[in-house]
Structures are given as C-alpha cells and as structure tokens.
Design goal:
Chains A, B: It holds the Pfam family TetR_N. 2 copies of one chain form a homodimer. Chain A is built from 12 helices and no strands. With 235 residues, chain A is mainly alpha-helical. The first copy, chain A, has 2 domains: 45 residues, Homeodomain-like (Arc Repressor Mutant, subunit A), CATH 1.10.10.60; 173 residues, Orthogonal Bundle (Tetracycline Repressor, domain 2). Chains A and B meet through helix 8, helix 9 and helix 11 of A and helix 8, helix 9 and helix 11 of B. Chain A binds a DNA duplex (30 and 30 nucleotides) through helix 3.
DNA sequence: ACAAACATACCGACGGTCGGTATTGATATG
DNA sequence: CATATCAATACCGACCGTCGGTATGTTTGT
C-alpha cells in the first residue's frame, strides 16, 4: 500500500535504509535484526530492498563503509595540518580519534555496544573494526614515517607497525565485554578500574613500541570509563 | 556406567560428533556447515544430535572447549616445571605455544585457516581466539608476576598485561588473511615477507612492553611463514 | 519397567528469488 | 508547446529452499 515518493532519489532511499538498519542494530543487535525488520521500519518492500542491495551482506558493507567514511572525513586533517612536529602530529592523531570517540557516543558507539551483548555478533564487530583500521592506517602510517625520519619513533617499518598499533588500541572492545553483568555499586567501581587499567596498559604498549615516554599515548578522555559504565547502567 | 547400543558411551558419541563437525568446519568453513551436514557425516539423526547438545551453539562451545583443553594440557607444564629463572620460564611459555602451533598444523590450525576464507566466519574465529586466551592467560599472568618480582619485566600489573600480550600475538590472524589471493611466485615471496615482518613487529611490541631486549620474543618457528604459504598453495 | 538413546515428521523464521506493476524522464511526434 | 511513446528504473508481495529447533514416537540396555 505504501506509495512511491517521487522526490526520492536512489541515494536517499539507500541512506534511509541504512538509517533504519543502524537504528535496529543499535536497539536489538545485529544478528537479531532481520531484513523483514528493516523493511518494515523503513516502510519498504522486500523487492525494493533487493533492488537497492544485492544481499544483506552487501547492505551491511555499505553501512560500514558509510561509517568509515565519516571517520576519514575528520581524520584526514592529521596530514593536512601544516607546521607540526612529528610528536605533535602523533598527538593530533590521538586527539582526533579520541574526540570522534566521545562524539560518537551514543550514536555509533552504541553499534559496538549492542553487538557486544551477543556473542553471535562478534563477526559484525570484527568487520566494523577492520573498516576502522582500513580508514585510519594509511594516514597513521605516514604519521609514523614522519616521526621515524625525525628520530622520534624508534622503529623501522611504519607500514607494519601502523595496523598493529591501531589494533592494540581496538583491543579495548574485549575489555568492555566485562562491563555487562554489573549489579552492585562495587562491581561498577571495579569494572571502571579494570577498563582504565586496560586502557593505560594499551597506551603503555604503544608508547614503548614507539620508544616514546610512558604515558604519552592517551587513548580515551579521562572520564571515558566511568561515563561508559554510567551510561550503560542508565539503560 | 550405562552402556548403550554399539558399545557407544554418551561421551564417545559426543566426541564423534565433535570430530565430524571439526572436519566439516575445516573443509567447508563454519558458516557453510549446517547441523544436517554434521548429522549426515556422523551417521546420526537430528534427535540424537539434540539429545546430546542443547543447540548448535552449545555444540560449538563444547568443540572449542575441547580444543582449549588440549592447549591447557600441554601448557600447564609452564608452571609445573621447577627451578627455572623468570626469563627462562617465559621462554618455555613461548616454546610450548610455538611447538603446539607447529603440531597443530594442519589439524586445528586449519580450523582458523578455513574460517579466514569467509568473512562470515570471523565470529567463529573470534570465539576460538577467546577460548585460547582464556586457556593461556591464567598461567601466563603468573609467569609475568614471577618475572616482575625478579625485576626482569618492567611492568606493574601482570593480570592486565597478560591478555593484552596474548591478543597482540593473536593479531597474527589478520595478517594471514592477506595470504589468500596469491597468484604469482612473487606474490608468494611478498606475502611471506609480510607475515614475517608482522610477526617480528608483534614480538618487538611485546619485548618493549615487558622491557626485555628486542628480539627476545619469538612467536613462531623460523620457517613458519614460508611453510604456511607453501601449504596453502598446495591446495 | 523405565529411562536413556535414538528416529522421524514437522514448524516458523530467515535470506533470497521471481514475475509483475507503477513511475519516471528522455525523446519523438502532432 | 503539448502530448504520445517507451525503455529504464523503482518498487511490490507471493513464493521457495534451507536452516535451527521441537514434538512425539520408538528402540535398547539394565
């Protein structure tokens, strides 16, 4: 019965479907969301869905690509900014990813959080993380190369180091899993500490690999862990 | 205790189903393997399957647990061996995991390789890796603690460091993905180098986090990368 | 006899396909 | 300038095979 909207360009429809899918993934998780669910929320028939996407997987690819492109948009400033020392450029890189992280809460961060709840969704999580790696690594490898030239970073292969470091930072997600199943306030405190300890250790691993002073790499804002746990508890 | 038809104890049936499932996962990948496939290969009815397992997920859990228990069996020697220096104990830990890795080829390593082929199977991969982490971390954390006591490792929190380090080592799997799609012999050489570079960088990250000399941590045997690529090419 | 160990028929949900219809914009024509 | 034409595009909804899972009946060992 749904009538066709004549002002809709194909791209708009695709984005509309993306939006609905993302919303559903956030609220009920990836694996629990069927194409029928997405269809119904979007007010679109199955035929329409498969007109715009070859498969469910292809749709998810498009959604993740769109997400990664948003990161690229903000992150490309790392190389575009002029007149920075190698270490300052590295710190800018950290800051942009930190800020993005803070902004993305709850928008896109909830994508990850929701998928953390179900073991089945770890594949989705993995794909999301790899999209992020693909977006960040090319720029970050150049940041490392510049720092190696200046003698700031004590490694010899930025292209190999870049994905390793980004994935060390992304190990974060395994620790967040423990944040579920919190009951008492003491649990809450313990989990906050565990997340903070883990973040510190990740930063330490990166600092020492690069040969820069302990504590240089701050992966999240100071209140990240407590905010995360508080947010989680509120729902 | 209770002996049933064909001399089959319940545990034997379970292991038989595990074996068939593992074989199928290796040959055609996890997501492409249905319960019906497993039933048919095992020569068992659906009723029998669901008599022994609550769900497909439960069966997979059991299979992964069995795999992790095999690791535990060999790995527990790390703490049982007496009279070792902290660094030698750490090296023993590395050696046992390296040897196990070499032995496990093609047996259980193929589990990972097969799941690397399909993007859809990354969830399965993730679960496998987390089982390994759960098996290794308790012992490894103690190894680290002993080394910290002796002033060999320059960190202060073995319980946080242990899973981080194990997962750095497991990052390996992301690099292996690039080994597919090899055509020319030059490709082959380049991929071998890429795998070796990555392994070296992972070892370096661990060495420097722990504060031990560069090159101490050898994650695989020397011919691992070339053997892997050669094996892959043979099929 | 009785429970464990199976077997079989069946179910609903899922991703995906298919034949068909409505809408559109470009172009040809009166 | 208005309109008929028409292929491409956007969309619909019934239908299909497969999957994980269940309900219920049957065999087998003790």
């Amino acid at each position: 019965m749904t009538r066709r909207r004549k002002n809709f360009r194909p791209e708009d429809r695709r984005n509309q479907i993306f939006d609905c899918a993302q919303q559903l993934f956030q609220t009920k998780g990836y694996s629990r969301t069927s194409i029928n669910d997405i269809m119904n929320i979007a007010g679109v028939s199955k035929g329409a869905f498969y007109h715009h996407f070859d498969s469910k997987e292809a749709m998810v690819d498009g959604l993740l690509r769109r997400y990664a492109d948003q990161i690229r948009g903000a992150y490309d400033a790392v190389l575009e900014t002029q007149g920075l020392s190698a270490l300052d450029r590295y710190k800018l890189h950290l800051q942009i990813l930190r800020d993005r992280q803070a902004l993305a809460e709850p928008q896109s961060m909830m994508l990850i959080i929701a998928s953390l709840l179900n073991e089945e969704d770890s594949g989705f999580q993995d794909r999301l993380m790899e999209e992020i790696v693909a977006a960040v690594v090319p720029v970050f490898a150049e940041v490392l190369r510049l720092g190696i030239e200046d003698g700031v970073f004590l490694i010899d292969d930025p292209v190999t180091a870049a994905p390793l470091i980004v994935r060390i930072a992304n190990q974060h997600r395994y620790v967040l899993k423990t944040a579920f199943g919190i009951k008492s306030a003491e649990d809450q405190k313990a989990v906050v500490k565990k997340i903070e300890d883990s973040l510190k250790m990740q930063g330490l691993a990166i600092d020492r690999l690069l040969g820069i002073p302990d504590g240089t790499t701050q992966l999240r804002h100071v209140n990240y862990a407590s905010d995360f746990v508080a947010n989680l508890h509120a729902k």
